[in-house]
Design goal:
binds magnesium ion; binds adenosine-5'-diphosphate; 6-stranded parallel β-sheet; alpha/beta; 14% strand; 5-stranded parallel β-sheet
Length: 397
């Protein structure tokens, strides 16, 4: 796999470089303002290096899930503005992805200029199943540049035109973020320092079963919180009240507990409320006795302590998925407590997952206290599952 340094060593002054980045930031539903610019900031090392070396840069990115057609709600306009502020130079936004406006603007770029293409998912071809449809868009994207740099780690698990097909059409390189993510994931899967502790949370156990199956044989402890813990608790025969429960996964959780119950650590107490509101009245109950009229919405203080003890002795930690509904103040403490314990780890600590990374920032924790905060939730999970990721495979070719 060729790196950005390989490209810089070739020399890029005056060359046209198409950079696929992950700028899929959360927006405030009311105002449309960016609520967390972490991914934009994570794209800077590659873009700054190319800019400083005099490349003529066209950036391709997606935002949200528009339905394959232009939709102002998903325009990259706010992202172009923020990227411009961070780069200290104006970043114009093309009116289309790889149409007339993009082509005209890309042709007019000067050395060190940065152009942002409009949301690649405004083209239905971006995510099309069939190769020829994606290929037609990839041809137009490839025509904008001489070389391709993939820095969109959060999208490398997608066989999309701007991630996969375009890399087949141009000399291709891995950007700094992709290289860094790969380095960290390799350390998590190849001979990690022990004890190796994985903390999983988030909403759905079905999203994470594959990674649990893949990691269980490798870890010393798997700590389970978030909405997914209730399916495990139910598998142990606990009453989970109105908490999230995936009844079709109970048998699988029961099998995992039978196979590796000594390594799986479940919550001992749970913060409950009748409703999911910012001013909800909460009660803490034992994890095996949640009243029928209440929902478990965060792990309790004794659980945070127990998880903290496990994390305190760890040398390698991977954390994915908030411990509770951290978006609302009454259900933040579990995530904050675990986030602090992960930050204090003496060794490699990795946070994966969009919501987990957002939680770290939203709860005011110091990002620099972590070994690495991954920008790609789905991509890092699929990598840890041992799956081949199309966007990485094509870069290695
Ligand atoms: P990540 O993006 O870090 O991989 P997920 O997307 O899997 O994380 O899950 C994040 C979501 O899980 C958050 O929106 C959070 O509110 C939700 N969540 C966490 N705990 C619970 C719970 N007990 N009940 C319902 N939802 C929960
Ligand atoms: Mg998420």
């Amino acid at each position: 796999m060729q790196s950005l340094d390989d490209l810089l060593a070739e020399g890029v002054r005056g060359r046209r470089v198409l950079v696929r980045t992950d700028l899929n930031v959360p927006l405030d539903k009311q105002t449309g303002a960016i609520t967390d610019d972490g991914r934009i900031r994570a794209s800077l090392p590659t873009l700054e290096a190319l800019r400083d070396a005099g490349a003529r840069i066209a950036v391709a990115a997606h935002l949200g899930r528009p339905k394959g057609a232009p939709d102002p709600q998903y325009s990259l306009a706010p992202v172009a503005a923020r990227l411009g502020e961070l780069l200290g130079r104006e970043v114009p936004l093309a009116a289309d992805v790889a149409g007339e406006d993009a082509a005209t603007r890309a042709a007019a770029l000067g050395d060190g200029d940065v152009l942002l293409l409009e949301n690649v998912r405004f083209e239905a071809a971006e995510t099309a199943k069939d190769d020829a449809t994606r290929g037609e868009l990839a041809d137009r994207l490839a025509a904008l540049a001489d070389v391709y740099v993939d820095d969109a780690f959060g999208a490398v698990h997608r066989k999309h035109a701007s991630v996969y097909d375009v890399a087949q059409r141009l000399p291709h390189y891995a950007g700094r973020l992709v290289a860094r993510e790969l380095d960290v994931l390799t350390r998590l899967t190849t001979d990690p320092d022990r004890p190796y502790v994985v903390v999983l949370g988030g909403s759905k156990v079905s999203d994470k079963l594959a990674v649990i199956e893949a990691l269980l044989p490798k870890v010393d402890r798997l700590l389970v919180g978030g909405g997914m813990c209730f399916t495990f608790l139910a598998a142990q025969g606990a009453e989970v009240g109105g908490s999230l429960l995936e009844t079709d996964q109970v048998d699988t959780c029961r099998r995992l507990l039978a196979e590796a119950g000594d390594r799986i650590v479940l919550p001992v107490d749970v913060v409950c409320a009748a409703d999911l509101t910012a001013d909800a009245e909460t009660t803490v109950v034992p994890a095996d006795a949640i009243p029928a009229d209440l929902k478990g919405l965060d792990v309790g203080p004794r659980t945070v302590e127990a998880f903290g003890r496990e994390l305190g002795g760890a040398r390698t930690v991977f954390w994915n998925g908030p411990m509770g509904v951290f978006e609302l103040a009454p259900f933040q403490d579990g995530t904050r407590g675990v986030a602090r314990a992960v930050a204090a780890v003496d060794g490699l600590s990795v946070v994966g997952g969009g919501d987990s990374a957002a939680a770290v920032r939203q709860l005011g924790l110091d990002e620099d206290a972590y070994g690495h905060i991954s920008t790609g939730g789905g991509a890092s999970l699929e990598y840890l599952e041992g799956r081949q990721l199309p966007g990485l495979a094509v870069l290695a070719d």
